[in-house]
Design brief:
The chain is of the alpha+beta class. It contains 2 helices and 6 strands. The radius of gyration is 16 Å and the shape is globular.
């Protein structure tokens, strides 16, 4: 079940001979779930064949945990005045902790 993208995502893929960039905003949808080995994330932008795009990403649990640790380490650089985004992140993390049975 996919949901509307509540904010914005920018994706860039760089290869030696190619560069792809895409933006997913409110008219796009996303799906995120945990499976047996990690996080599965899909971003989709619907539309005509020349506008349609999607990104499928799978991150194993070890890397996901490493990413979360990196994010925690960078919070000090995050503006303390940005209350709205801090609350969004804190609420989502609290929900994840409850779902994991650790909070």
């Amino acid at each position: 079940m996919s949901r509307p993208v509540p904010d914005k995502a920018e994706i860039a893929l760089e290869y030696p001979d190619k560069f792809y960039v895409g933006t997913f905003e409110h008219s796009s949808r996303f799906e995120a779930k945990l499976d047996g080995s990690g996080l599965a994330l899909v971003l989709q932008h619907p539309g005509a064949a020349d506008e349609r795009k999607s990104v499928h990403l799978h991150i194993n649990f070890g890397l996901l945990a490493g990413i979360l640790h990196e994010l925690a380490g960078s919070v000090a650089a995050f503006s303390k005045d940005d209350i709205a985004h801090r609350e969004q992140l804190a609420d989502a993390l609290a929900e994840l902790q409850r779902a994991l049975g650790t909070g």
